[in-house]
UniProtKB/TrEMBL annotation:
The lineage of its organism: Bacteria, Pseudomonadati, Pseudomonadota, Gammaproteobacteria, Alteromonadales. InterPro entries: GlcNAc_PI_deacetylase-related, LmbE-like_dom_sf. It comes from the Bacteria. This is GlcNAc-PI de-N-acetylase.
Length: 247
């Protein structure tokens, strides 16, 4: 069954981290969208390329102020507008539990802003600023990269797409390459890739990301005694509502 699916992210790479769900929805005839708060200009271009790979129909860039995410009306209205325009059946966003301990800046206030916008989108909020858009309540929310997942999806059919989408993010990979070159000892670097020192910063970042992705998705799949080899983990908000028990 196809759905309208919206990803609400902070920096950008999260869109690709949820690329399995977005791509599977698009392949099933659904419409996938994404909204990113803080992507810089180069990252925006690269995310557009990644979106094409994943079948994401449109990416909204909010261009909020880095280091100063808060609950100002301007930010809430921007996210409410995205939700009302895309009319999603499903929203994917960052996990509240995980965001509290994440040391990336803006994660914690962003979580409050995201949840508030999701709630306000279905109320009579901001109607004077967007009279052409009716309130849109969102029934189902999934949290990405949760500490306590309660569901997974198989990546087997879209793994190549997810990898190609991550290849598009050279700015993020370059940043990660410099970061891990400083953080990891030579021995640890070689454990990731035997020729780590000979790689460019972009290649270093990509190899580390590739290793982390495979470890996470294998753990969520085979490592958790799943029938899935590689699995993207999520935590669904609220109870699972099933018409009948599923195997």
């Amino acid at each position: 069954m196809s759905h309208r699916m919206l990803f609400l992210g902070v920096y950008g790479m999260e869109m690709v981290e949820c690329g399995g769900a977005l791509a599977l929805n698009a392949e099933a005839g659904g419409r996938s969208f994404a909204s990113i708060m803080l992507a810089k200009s180069q990252m925006q271009t690269e995310l557009q390329a990644a979106a094409q790979v994943l079948g994401v129909e449109k990416v909204y860039f909010n261009e909020f102020e880095r280091g100063d995410i808060d609950l100002r009306r301007e930010y809430k209205l921007a996210l409410v507008r995205v939700i009302r325009e895309t009319k999603p059946d499903i929203i994917i966003t960052q996990d509240p539990e995980h965001s509290y301990e994440d040391l990336d800046p803006d994660r914690r206030p962003a979580m409050l802003l995201l949840l508030e916008a999701i709630a306000l989108a279905g109320r009579d909020y901001g109607l004077e600023e967007m009279p052409e858009l009716e309130p849109h309540p969102v029934a189902t929310v999934y949290y990405m990269s949760p500490q306590t997942p309660n569901c997974t999806i198989s990546l087997a059919s879209v793994w190549e797409k997810k990898e190609r989408a991550m290849d598009c993010l050279s700015a993020q990979m370059t940043f990660s390459g410099h970061h891990f070159s400083e953080r990891l000892s030579v021995q640890e670097q070689q454990a990731i890739h035997p020729q780590f020192a000979e790689l460019t910063p972009t290649q270093r970042g990509r190899e580390v990301q590739r290793a982390m992705d495979r470890a996470l998705y294998l753990h969520s799949g085979l490592g958790s005694h799943s029938r899935f080899a590689l699995a993207e983990p999520y935590r669904r908000q609220g109870l699972m509502e099933l018409e009948r028990l599923i195997p």
